[in-house]
Amino acid sequence: MCKYIDCLKHILSSIEVELCEEDIKCFASQTCEHSLKKGEFITKKGEFEKNIYFLKSGIVEYYRIVEDDTNRNVYKQTTEIAFPNEIVGEFESFITNKVSKYNIVALSDVKLISICYQALNKLCNRSEDFKLVIKKIIENQYVKKREREFNLLTKTAEEQYNLLLTKSPEVIRDTPLGVISSYLGITPQSLSRIRRKCNFLLR
Prior knowledge:
Blueprint: H1 2-14, H2 21-29, E1 32-36, E2 41-43, E3 51-57, E4 60-68, E5 73-82, E6 87-88, H3 91-96, E7 103-106, E8 110-116, H4 117-126, H5 128-154, H6 157-167, H7 169-172, H8 177-184, H9 188-202
Antiparallel strand pairs: 1-8, 2-7, 3-6, 3-8, 4-5, 4-7
Helix pairs in contact: 4-5, 8-9
């Protein structure tokens, strides 16, 4: 339980939330731990997102299936990659109670801490501090989404790849090339050239 609470403290601290020890324990009492194998889904498109997750370990991919009417091609588009100590979930579905537009899947074996919508409401009714937690989670996801959009518009694929390396160098090297290239909007061949260049510069 100690490590469990320490993980929650770390994640809440990352979104600039500080709770007293009693509130942390209360928060932890409303959560559940999950272990998923590589390839298992956290959320599927068309489902209702009922939980917010805190990623303890592993890598998570958000993706959607895109149908190109012009070429009649169907392909997978990676929209987000989540790393340890990040908050995970289909937040639009969670907040609006509409079905998820994305699939969220474990790219490796993962460990998660979840809290459901009803439990969050229960906590919010208990203390104003928990309303701040919700506010900060929403702000965090909004800023993350805006940064992703800004990077897509203003940074090259190589610059975006370097940002990923800075964020989580050990984990990103274990992420499949196809997932990273889809996330960056380039071909796996282009990504291989970028990786070779980065490895050369690091020598």
